[in-house]
Amino acid sequence: MKKIPVGILAATGIVGQRFIQLLADHPWFEITAVAASERSAGKRYADAVHWLLPTPIPERVADMTVVESRPPLDCALVFSALPSDVAREVEPAFAAAGYVVSSNASAYRQEPDVPLLIPEVNPDHLGLLPSQQKSRGWDHGCLVTNPNCSTITLVMALKPLVDAFGVEQVIVTTMQATSGAGYPGVPSLDVIDNVLPHTDGEEPKMEWEPLKLLGSLNGVEITLADLPISAHCHRVAVWDGHTEAVSVKLGRRATADELRQVLHDFRGLPQELGLPSAPERPLSVPAAENRPQPRLDRDAAGGMATAVGRIRPCPILDWKLLVVGHNTVRGAAGAAILNAELMKAQGYL
Amino acid sequence: MKKIPVGILAATGIVGQRFIQLLADHPWFEITAVAASERSAGKRYADAVHWLLPTPIPERVADMTVVESRPPLDCALVFSALPSDVAREVEPAFAAAGYVVSSNASAYRQEPDVPLLIPEVNPDHLGLLPSQQKSRGWDHGCLVTNPNCSTITLVMALKPLVDAFGVEQVIVTTMQATSGAGYPGVPSLDVIDNVLPHTDGEEPKMEWEPLKLLGSLNGVEITLADLPISAHCHRVAVWDGHTEAVSVKLGRRATADELRQVLHDFRGLPQELGLPSAPERPLSVPAAENRPQPRLDRDAAGGMATAVGRIRPCPILDWKLLVVGHNTVRGAAGAAILNAELMKAQGYL
Amino acid sequence: MKKIPVGILAATGIVGQRFIQLLADHPWFEITAVAASERSAGKRYADAVHWLLPTPIPERVADMTVVESRPPLDCALVFSALPSDVAREVEPAFAAAGYVVSSNASAYRQEPDVPLLIPEVNPDHLGLLPSQQKSRGWDHGCLVTNPNCSTITLVMALKPLVDAFGVEQVIVTTMQATSGAGYPGVPSLDVIDNVLPHTDGEEPKMEWEPLKLLGSLNGVEITLADLPISAHCHRVAVWDGHTEAVSVKLGRRATADELRQVLHDFRGLPQELGLPSAPERPLSVPAAENRPQPRLDRDAAGGMATAVGRIRPCPILDWKLLVVGHNTVRGAAGAAILNAELMKAQGYL
Amino acid sequence: MKKIPVGILAATGIVGQRFIQLLADHPWFEITAVAASERSAGKRYADAVHWLLPTPIPERVADMTVVESRPPLDCALVFSALPSDVAREVEPAFAAAGYVVSSNASAYRQEPDVPLLIPEVNPDHLGLLPSQQKSRGWDHGCLVTNPNCSTITLVMALKPLVDAFGVEQVIVTTMQATSGAGYPGVPSLDVIDNVLPHTDGEEPKMEWEPLKLLGSLNGVEITLADLPISAHCHRVAVWDGHTEAVSVKLGRRATADELRQVLHDFRGLPQELGLPSAPERPLSVPAAENRPQPRLDRDAAGGMATAVGRIRPCPILDWKLLVVGHNTVRGAAGAAILNAELMKAQGYL
Questions:
Q1: Residues B79 and B114 in one domain
Q2: How many structural domains is chain B composed of?
Q3: Mutate which of D14, D240, D281, D296 to disrupt the A interface (most A C-beta within 10 Å)?
């Protein structure tokens, strides 16, 4: 199979670096363009980037010349790690120019005609694309987004509970890694010997995005789920891996063993289709009472599995859980790649 | 005034060190005995202790000889930082021998005749002491306990809300400092680049202790408050200062401004009596939306004030708050000292 | 005594905040102006600053209006925490306008007619000022600088050894706090679970500045000391307090006890004059073999004392030492304040 | 080829866990026994261990029953991660019983007839074994040790310099990961917002072990190298990876480029023999001026390569270098495995 040529927007940022790392040996996609800001354009990628990952820059990419983040780009699909304000301008320009855009940016997540997608959760929301293209006058191009990193971690754990028992209320407190804020991002002075309240819009995202993800597609629009969520968000001195303490109220009675079973057995369309980046099991359910922990569980299935543990009764809602997910893999670059894989498998690409 | 001679049990531990630091220039109490395990007994205090506080060992104490933690001790009042299993044996022995025992240990917190005390919250619970002495056959001795560090931080913030609005439900997620576990305590491998679930009994304590603290004294017993609490507890890489994300359901409608006012205006008996360790304001209510933070707020009023901020609506219960308290000052040694000051002021000592 | 009105340049930065904290109750100086960049000018100080210290903003300063960092300013003395490039323009403008400038910036440290001053080390270098004023045509104004934070920590420990034994060679490896880089400064991603080589000019500063500090004033110029120094510099996940591992070759044989004695006995002109910010003992010499440590020793004498310990033979040079100093107090704001106190005491102000 | 059955002594500790992780798919060795203290004996390995690595326990090992650390053991070769005092008794017992012992313990490193081995550095020291067996009366058994983790990191970087230029003096300052101290090991209170002097024997090890490693085998004994080394050792808040700042005096003049070339070109016998755990290049020489860093460089070649960078002139000795090595892989378990591979390749096993 000839590989699909892909471009990375904001390729020098921390999520851009994850895209490059995860796509290095991808069976379907091949990086043919790396784009960044004007300041980096024209430089060799290895010279333009402040590389922050323990694995080396893939050699082929190291020598590529960075171009600016605007069409045309030598590729068919673009992965966008753009900041939201830039994404707002640039992503539709790419879609209008005929590119498939798989975006990690927040700019268009709330647009009614833009799928907000987790392939294990709401793959049918890709059904928005024909009307998206029609209404926006895009011929071949289209735009798909993945949720915020803290949302993905939460919703991965909620989805099987929604399906099996119904979920009526969620209170979640996050202890988030600093890599989610990019580089330079969170100052060391804010997290050494400290916990930093996360005050820039994270909580509203966590309270709204799951409603769309768990909503239902009715013809050309999504009916939001009816699910009140209360989010308390914080940063802690962790490099990668968001930890989320969750209380849930279920739609019906269940036992801890039933929850554990349902979480453990969870599979979605990516598993059924055998998508390249799909973890065999989307959820790991470690048995030890002191798990999950970000350092120990973030890298499960290459960072694509979410860990759920400490299932115990909640005196207010029904159950308490602890969830850990890798924020820049499953919560960002890996999410957008899995979205693109689903689009490819379903003929949108 | 002649100072009251006091002894410290488990004086070489981290809470023992805080007792010594806080009592160095106390206007009412004077350290006359430092007690520890058999291994340390006979040594000079400065040689027996692995001192971990940035202020130096007070000179007078440095040269004292450590004795074993059992009566008789050259003092009238003992502050106990003993581990729970040892406290179970040793504390009643001191009370029986005529000493007033102000304990930070968990061993007797649940005993019906033992006050579990925060002077700003339930000073009247000292009223249990006469029947305690009578039923246990103690002449002059008695035993008073302070709550767990994470409980104190929570209940300090809840008390004014209980009084003004009623509190019906509480969900709390803690991000706790490692000093609470003593030394050596939490291994560095558990908190570097990590969050550690707190699995050894912290959650049940946080869910039960507030019921006694907020309960009412009826003659010779406490009627527990009717207040379901759900606690999620974790350790993070913070030296001192517990951070607690709280959702509360109130008994009646209120505005954020009303909450802020009530928290800000909160005063208790220690403030009225002008007890030496009482902070002028038990609660600080920082206005900045990114406060409180443990590094910035733990030391308010020498660690005796609790900080409450980020007051915002909760979509499930009524309000979200963020609370920070110093776990080894207001949450341990300072708590026991304030308890003793109240006892002194009220004639129990 | 009427207090001398002082202004702070770059008052919103982390060193600016230390100036404000340290000057809050100063017996000689009173803050009458806070200056910062154009962006902050016109705002209330408390609104303009991202305050990062555990003690609150002194009330008087909180309500002051920030002005721009250029003359005229309502004061007689300015403390400068400006970045080097800005300092290069602004500091001489203040001196020319008649202000005494006590600067923490590196811009003019190497100028032959500008004292690079540590009052315990080379107070006589103030003797450069008359010729400075003359040659630069400054009437009343003048400019004095303090060294880099890592240099001060090193030279405080070296000075008594220089005086007592002579010092011929120094190899120093630093493990520096991140507060020295200001805010936002060092990204958390660079120091969580990591050590960051310090590559932006720190090593040359540490290798050159001590030569001027330990040099001798000959009429109107400083003859640099003949002292080869080799510096290896790094950042670690520490908030405040630089730790420096030092090997020294002395001019003559000595015993560990002699070194310890000489360090312990060290006093300088600030101690003799009783300057307000002078620590009673400039050096603390903790006896424990695992001291100094930044968390335990940085705050000695309010951050103005430097700790020296672990004195042991070096198989290559003569002795190994471990030194800890507070980088934003003794290493920055406190240094500039002590310099100004010396100037006042000696009639330059 | 039939695999050689191997046992792990102290299999539940952090180095024991690394042995199990690294041997999971080893082409020559197969774990057939896991041994630990009496307390763990009889338990399933997965139940006995507090597993601390991000990769899961290999399934086959998880279900093995832990036995006590004494012969007989169902294997031919034992890897020892025993603490030194236990190793002193147990390791000779295994050797006497006919087992080949590859030890990470320090107990026998200084014995004249026991090879202290780094296969790239002094493979010929295995020549001590015949006389070892003869003098100790061991038939088939023998004992080989690897150096301390901080020593290995240093000597890997020194060896090519020794060969190419001669090395006459070394001053090294370490910033060591806490995993080297095992679990629970270094308390979090000692490294949060702190640097901890390493006071328990690390410095003497670093100053002596290289002399044996770089010494020459003369018949049946090693003549120690004549190389004064001065070590300053510290712990920092890093999980894995020792960082070492090194100044070296060479035997002859060289340029930075020559050093870089010699380090980059370094190969040893393991590379020549193609031993399974040998990294293709023992040394990585990152070009960026801010490298190496432990988080970015410790995992090179699966943790078996050592990174050397920041090659720059030293004003006292000749050159400054920064070295990073993985302390529990190349510095412990991986070291002992590579030693055993060399023994196998050379017919000692």
A1: yes
A2: 2
A3: D296
Give yes or no: residues B185 and B322 share one domain: yes
Q: How confident is the model at residue A321 (pLDDT cuts 50, 70, 90)?
A: very high
At A238 the pLDDT is 98
Flag whether pLDDT at C1 surpasses 90: no
Cβ distance C296 to B52 less than 8 Å, yes or no, reads yes
The Cα–Cα gap between C56 and B305 comes to 14
- Residues C81, C138 within the same domain: yes
Asked whether the beta carbons of residue B197 and residue A236 sit closer than 8 angstroms, the reply is: no
- Per-residue pLDDT tens digits for D140-192: 999 999 999 999 999 999 999 999 999 999 999 999 999 999 999 999 999 99
Which residue range forms the structural domain that includes residue C252? 149-327
Query: CA D75, CA D109: separation in Å to the nearest integer?
Result: 24
Task: Looking at the complex, report in whole angstroms how far the Cα of residue B347 sits from the nearest Cα belonging to chain D.
Answer: 39
Q: pLDDT tens, D73-89?
A: 999 999 999 999 999 99
- CA-based end-to-end distance of chain C: 14
Contact B214, B155 (CB under 8 A): yes
Residue D31's pLDDT is: 98
- pLDDT surpassing 90 at residue A267: yes
From first CA to last CA, the distance across chain A in angstroms is 14
Q: What is the DSSP string of B252-296?
A: S---HHHHHHHHHH---HHHHHT-TT--SSSEE---STT---HHH
Whether residue B199 and residue A289 make contact (CB cut-off 8 A), yes or no, is yes
Is residue A297 located within the same domain as residue A199?
yes
Contacts of B195 in chain A (CB under 8 A): 175, 236, 238, 243, 293-294
C149 carries an active-site annotation: yes
The first and second tokens of residue C8, run together, are 């702070």
Torsion region of B137: left, alpha or beta (phi above 0 gives left; psi -120 to 50 gives alpha)? left
- Interface ipTM: 0.96
The whole-angstrom distance between residue B158's C-alpha and the CA centroid of its chain comes to 15
Tell me if B237 and D192 make a contact (CB, 8 A cut-off).
Answer: yes
Tokens matching residue D177:
């990961």
Query: Is B224 found in the same domain as B97?
Result: no
Reported pTM: 0.97
Mean of all residue pLDDT scores within chain B: 97
Torsion of CA D15, D16, D21, D26, to 10 degrees: 110
- Give residue-wise pLDDT tens across range D41-75: 999 999 999 999 999 999 999 999 999 999 999 99
> Given the DSSP bridges, would you call strands D306-313 and D283-284 parallel, antiparallel or unpaired?
parallel
Tell whether omega for the bond before C315 is within 30 degrees of 0, i.e. cis.
Answer: no
CB D55 within 8 A of CB A303: no
Interface test with C, best of D172, D193, D207, D226 (most C CBs within 10 A): D193
Identify the CATH number of the domain in which residue C22 sits. 3.40.50.720
Kindly report the CATH number assigned to the domain that includes residue C170: 3.30.360.10
The predicted model gives B67-91 an average pLDDT of: 97
Query: Which chains does chain C touch, 3 or more C-beta pairs < 8 A?
Result: A, B, D
Nearest to D120 by CA among D338, D340, D292: D338
> Are residues A52 and D296, on separate chains, in Cβ contact within 8 Å?
yes
* C127 Cα to chain B: minimum distance (Å): 38
Are residues D102 and D177 located together in one domain of the fold?
no
Cβ–Cβ < 8 Å for D317, D296: no
- For residue range D265-286, what is the model confidence (pLDDT) as tens digits? 999 999 999 999 999 999 999 9
pLDDT in tens, A145-192: 999 999 999 999 999 999 999 999 999 999 999 999 999 999 999 999
C318 and C273, same domain (yes or no): yes
Best interface-test mutation with C: which of B284, B295, B297, B326 has the largest number of C CBs within 10 A? B295
Same domain membership, residue B143 and residue B188: no
The pLDDT of C207-216, averaged and rounded, is 98
